[in-house]
Amino acid sequence: MIALTEAATLHPLVLPARADAADAGDLLDYARVRNASLLETTGRDDEHLEPDALLALLRSDTDLERRQWSVVEDGETIGVAVLNVVADGGGRTAYVTINLLQRTWGRGLGTVVLAQIEKTAKEAGVRKLLLWTEHTDRGEVRLDSPTGFGSVPRDHHARFLLRHGFALEQVERVSVLELSEESTRRVTALRDAAARMADGYRVVQWTLPTPPAHVDGYARMKQRMSTDVPDAELDMPEENWDAERVARHDARHLDRGNTVLVTAAQHVATGELCAFNELAIGRRADETTHQEDTLVLSSHRGHRLGLLVKTAGLLSWRTQHPLSPQVITFNAEENRPMLNINEAIGFVPVAYEGAWRKDLP
Q: Strand pairing of 273-281 and 8-12?
């Protein structure tokens, strides 16, 4: 426990064996405040996680050393903080999150929490912090992305980050597709058009866990995802993927209760997997679907494979998960090829995230 103010303290979150264990009270408070803070910031519940699903997400593994804290004031949990140290790149990069309930803003709590997280990160050998946050436009002056694509308002989050040495590096668009009969007809027509352009390729699909026949190809594409997607000057390290990492990736989703459909394009002549798309949903049938990674290997671009795997995946998903009302996805504003596909499918922007970087001395 670390004293932040006379009344507030920072408590490392000790993870229980199960979310329903007798000692899980701190986890339950952590989950409640996390979910409430995200709802206050975004106005949406698509990132809501029940304690048991969240517990699976909070555990460290070979790829990420995960640390979490609760911010407690007068015996009440009022905020949460996260530091995830990335193993790739020698552990010099970490993802940071601070979520405080809005009624506690403006009293300097975020500043003292960030100072403690930075101290912990430096002691662990971290030299770069990365942070993503959604920004709410209330008419503030805009801050342009250095990529030349997109901007965010100088809202509460932006002002805090600028004041503490973070730099805006990229803007991400949050887009939503409403699933309906109309959208299904549009997606079907686009899938058929893409299939005509994708001569020499076929669609293959699987639900996690990944079948042995596709592990190596999936691992190659996931590794390329870490290098080929625009990341401005965030300079995220290249991820090293192999069969063991695919197994860990699959297990993390399954432990959270997620169902994940992978739709890939396979080059018929060589058998190479050369494009893929992921759709994921939690335990509830009526949850929002998350469109996660999508990639086309550079050597296979120009055949509408991105459109093919996205539309083929959505059509299968609509059959398998008819109660899911919508799909949400995130794309860099400069990633015009993927935005073109999303816009053609019917995704519309609903919010914008800033991707921020701070180099530690």
A: unpaired
Considering only CA atoms, which of 113, 98, 105, 155 is closest in space to residue 10?
A: 113
End-to-end CA distance of the chain: 25
Q: Which helix (H) or strand (E) holds 182?
A: helix 181-197
Q: Three-state DSSP class for 7?
A: coil
DSSP 8-state code for residue 14? P
pLDDT tens track for 242-267 = 999 999 999 999 999 999 999 999 99
Per-residue model confidence as pLDDT tens digits over 299-326: 999 999 999 999 999 999 999 999 999 9
Average pLDDT in the chain: 97
pTM for the predicted model, two decimal places: 0.95
Handedness of CA 109, 103, 95, 35 (dihedral sign): positive
For CA atoms 31, 36, 41, 42, the dihedral sign is: positive
What CA–CA distance (Å, rounded) separates 298 from 296?
Answer: 6
Is 239:219 a contact under the CB 8 Å cutoff? no
Spatial contact of 58 and 69, defined as CB atoms under 8 Å apart: no
Return the residue matching tokens 């601070």.
Answer: 98
Helices then strands (H, E): number in the chain?
9, 15
Of 60, 39, 57, the C-alpha closest to 48 is 39
Exposed/middle/buried for 52, CB within 10 Å: 0-12, 13-18, 19+?
A: middle
